[in-house]
Amino acid sequence: MKLPVQLRESIAQDQERTESSKAQMSELESSIQKVDAEVHNKEMMLKDLRKLQDQVSRKTAERSTLFKEQQRQYAALPEENEGFSFAI
Prior knowledge:
The relative contact order is 0.04. By secondary structure, this protein is mainly alpha-helical. The protein has one helix spanning 5-81. The mean pLDDT is 91. The protein contains one helix and no strands. Residues 32-62 form a coiled coil. Keywords: Coiled coil.
């Protein structure tokens, strides 16, 4: 059975559209994978930055504590030295 010319042309056009759509989907999938990889990299960078920020916060608190202790010890020096007499 022979198909009418219009039907054959319609089938050929549908096949072309199908192939075109498949190619577009393949390109989009590739683009999506690239974007997913970029998002993953950014998430890892953000995680690393948060770790660094936490380390900075801890070190800042540690320095502050040490500075306060140093000030307390320095303030206590005159009291400790009151009991000593220095001979010149």
